[in-house]
Request: fold
Amino acid sequence: MSFSICGTVGGNIGSIDCDVRRGRPVGIIVGSAVFVAADYASSATFQTALLTKVKSAAGSASKLFPFPSIQTTNDKTDAPKEGTYGYGLKQILLQGLPAYEFIMIPGTTQEKKMRQFHNKTVPVFVFDDAGNVWGVGDTSGNFFGATCLISVIGKGFEDGQNVKGTTVQISYVNAGDFYDSAYFMSTTFSISSLKALNDGIVAPVAVNSTNVFHLGIKIPTAQIGNSVDVHLKYPTELSSSALWAAFTGVNFATTHTLTTVANDTTNGGWTVTLDTTQFGALASGAQVKIGLVAPGVLDAAGVTELESVPYIYTKP
Amino acid sequence: MDKKEIKALLDNNLSYEGIGFNGPHIAKMSIEQLTKEVAHHQLTKEQIAEVSSLAKKKYSAV
Reply:
């Protein structure tokens, strides 16, 4: 008998009945969110934490961006590099890093936004057809996305021969993330529960009268000169001073009090009135930034899938 | 922003005649100040008095 250290090299490799295996990817979620034990205490808490991070404001370090649903998956992982000894013994010399190509069918407007992630290295969670979200776990109990190089190849013109979509490829930077440190969290979501936000541009629809502003919100589309008017969808919901916010001062760090917000049907927007006294005290050249509150608050008030890009007014 | 903060923010709003008043802010104003402030909304004297009264009742502790 030879000497052996096999007993200390590995661990027990017993099977677990009904153990879960990766399913068919139906969506990917990119971003640097980290979930802690309290977040994944149950499917319900995890789902709440996940949605909160999807609805975070752009610029938030832990924001998650869900991509559109996947229509085709192609395994692009390189085949392992093999070598053979002279007498025929085969050995795997190098294992290919996992890489997957997904075909999605976003519109041109959405595709432009997705292209912003092209050629970036970002943490990626993969959502499979069993509702499991796959990521990476560390020894501290954190759950986060696996680091991937992401490529977003836009859709060209149709050719009438084959289906065509937008190609998103993810390549795992570290095989260990994918094979050895892989963890999942189960959800009762379908991928359509994860809606990405739209940028609504806040801009005047009529000239302001000192502290009384007439503002509209439009979501630009790829059709030049055409945008989606938010006022047509949420005229009354956004007639609320709790859903608007104004800031002034250095780095817009000072809150400017709002007095009222009313539906402005004449101009197709909202009449936003800033506090007369505070506005009057601003010096010439001072700027006021007016926009909607954080997307999570909007969502709680029934204004969904929207984040505002604020309007900045310079006092003459 | 957690759920409690969101709730507090949403509660601090007074909706009247399709106008969203900043409740806690209005509660601190006199009728004269409020009349001047919301002149462009073309509310009647009675409506302004009602808004002021509602705000003071609801947000006087804020």
